């Protein structure tokens, strides 16, 4: 079923048409640590794209590859950017909508109690 699902869907990876077009007109230029594959058009190198390994979520693209995709840097990230420093954290995708998302104290999805009101709020009343 997995192979046939990508004939018509795009949200969990490249569709069959995108894969064929990428292989025919694109040149693979690299892969990131998340398994995403980056391409540039054979005839127009300014056209660049990514095929995600998994769901299509642009927050899963590391900063260096994001700069390359947008044309901020011309050369590949490993050639034109310095290596990651010890104090820099590994990039994370957007966690909104997942169990790992931030939930402030008192929210329905988090444990804890909502902080008490401070009394500085006055409800609006129409006149």
Automatic annotation (TrEMBL):
Pfam families: NDUFA12. InterPro entries: NDUFA12 (IPR007763). Signal peptide: none annotated. Residues 81-127 are annotated as: Disordered. PANTHER family: NADH DEHYDROGENASE [UBIQUINONE] 1 ALPHA SUBCOMPLEX SUBUNIT 12, NADH-UBIQUINONE OXIDOREDUCTASE SUBUNIT B17.2. This is NADH:ubiquinone oxidoreductase subunit NDUFA12. It comes from Sphingomonas caseinilyticus. The lineage of its organism: Bacteria, Pseudomonadati, Pseudomonadota, Alphaproteobacteria, Sphingomonadales.
